[in-house]
Design brief:
This protein is α/β, with parallel strands linked by helices. The chain has helices at about 5-15, 25-35, 50-55, 60-70, 80-90, 105-110, 115-125, 135-140, 150-155, 170-180, 200-210, 225, 235-245, 260-265, 295-305, 315-330; strands at about 40-45, 55-60, 75-80, 95-100, 130, 145, 165-170, 185, 215, 230, 250-255, 270-275. The strands form 3 sheets. It has a 4-stranded parallel β-sheet with strand order 2-1-3-4, sandwiched between helices. A 4-stranded parallel β-sheet has the order 6-5-7-8. β1 (about 40-45), α3 (about 50-55) and β2 (about 55-60) form a beta-alpha-beta unit. α2 (about 25-35) packs parallel to α15. The chain is globular and about 55 Å long. The chain starts with a helix and ends with a helix. Bound molecules: 1,3-dihydroxyacetonephosphate and iron/sulfur cluster. 1,3-dihydroxyacetonephosphate binds near residues 61, 134, 220 and 235.
Amino acid sequence: MKLIELAKQNIETKGYLDIETSGIDYITEIQKLKKEKNAILLAHYYQIDEIQEIADFVGDSLALAQKAAKTDADMIIFAGVHFMAETAKILNPTKKVLLPDLLAGCSLADSCPPDNFSEFKKQHPNHVVITYINCSAEIKALSDYVCTSSNAKKIVNSIPKEQPIIFAPDKNLGAYLNKETGRDMVLWEGSCLVHEAFSMEKLIKLHKENLDAEIIAHPESEDHLLQVASYIGSTAGLLDYVKNSSRTKFIVATEAGILYQMMRENPDKDIIPAPAKEDNTCACSECAYMKLNTLKKLYLCIKHELPNIEVDAELAKKAIVPIERMLELSK
Ligand code: 13P
Ligand code: SF4
């Protein structure tokens, strides 16, 4: 669904966001409502600390999709962005799937409109299509395989070398995969605003001041940044790397929400966020979409069971095929 339609739906449901909630202890109420409604709260590592703290499960895109597919809860509350909740609904259509704020979109998903992508596909006949999970259900329905940053290399390598491939929508992840796998995939020109917001100048200066620190990065980052990284991986990969490393200082190039788990798991290590080009409140990179979810919205979402994510049955039937291929290859 286009963001504009989501926005309209959000306005229709916005009234409930203005409901007076002063004096309500959101955390206690959310826990109570979760139990009463047999709901599971899934949260991505980029969510605000308070949401990660009360979630039943916190993970990267792949782990969240796997969890959503398997859960026997009646309701999935997705503290993440729209494509994640939509994927959960496609994988587990009998469950009610809720997203605290319908405007929690993704710049990467928005950079790939279905009509343009359909044309792009026509210009590259005989290509297998691999799409990063950060895209709409319409784009997934036009794909042969979906992947996430934690299984992308495996998915690309599962396809015979001589088979031409289109990779969409992230050109940075695509270029990184081309380097890693020796392929020459045709890349869609999409990117994530957040991972393109790091300043190389400030990063180099910061590294000079902390020469004992290792730079680690998410593969949505640009090539010049990935070239100076000692480790490149998904959010879960970055967390595992820091936990298992004997090093004690890291400069982390991804969205700042990950710092909450990283610092919690490694209280004795120095975790420094990679600096953003623009000076902002945290001098780091934050995803404005991820940060739309708040405790108040989460509370109202569980209480009123809104906003509810729906996916057209015909569309879901097509979109689930490449997602299930990915899950099968990720076992
Ligand atoms: P992960 O799959 O690594 O959690 O990434 C999700 C995402 O949106 C990165 O910007
Ligand atoms: Fe999308 Fe980038 Fe936000 Fe991830 S960080 S959800 S890719 S806009």
